[in-house]
Design goal:
Length: 300
Amino acid sequence: MSRPGVDVLIPTLNEADHIEAAVKSGLQIGPVYVLDSLSTDGTQELARKAGATVVEHEWEGYSRQKNWGLDNLPFEGTWVFILDADERITPPLRDEVLRMIEKDPKEVGFFVNRVVLFMGRAIRHGGLYPSWNLRFFRRGLCRYEDRAVHEHMVCDGDTSYLKHEMLHIRHETITEYIDKHIDYANLESDEWVKQRLGKGGGASTGSLFRDMLRYRQWLRRRVWPKMPFRPVMRFVYMYFVRLGILDGKAGYHLAMLMASYEYMISLLYRDKLMKIREEERREAKNKQEPRSQPAEIGAK
């Protein structure tokens, strides 16, 4: 039987540097469950010492791993809050979540705004703020779309927005940041290929978002991949149009890094499409080549 309250889910893979603070942050609102993807840096033991219940499960991908956790972890609360290891719940957000549980609202899910801390600065421009993510929801009524990366939640019911924000603290080195975004670019290019071939693309944006978020994501998924000069456009959009220039050096470096990220996606997407077309041409050629006829028995 469910109890009134919220359980916190933290998915991890080698997050030893961040997990203790993340667990302590999550414990502000309820019991914490760490879903660990077989870390090799001691994340599991550090999470247990900090007060979390740790369950290990081999990595299945971003959305499938978290959906596995939603289906299999021993949650007891009516609500779930998903927190990444590099995120923190602020005191105002903590109080708002606890009040919302007591209120027992009709909505089944709530978007939470994140502010990125990068190079020691809160990033509030460049199109990175506000950054709405559906993280607080009724157990059993929301789950992630089947998408390789940048996945979003689909809820069976109304959704709304919380007022207060959480922190997204980018502690990693630039080398680690670039390595992570190479992986993201590879996965995102896979999604572009699926969309090009009509084999995927995740849930419809209409089922994921409300209001302007719905149209922004539609543009991002359906229109943006077809646009020319995406890296240049991404930099100009972030740094000038969305005033990333006001975030100082951090805003400039972020705009440059995200432009490079767009370039990586484009290159990987092009490379994968070329390989698919080469394979299709090879298969077509093999079908067109006449098969050699077997020699007749007794022929001279």
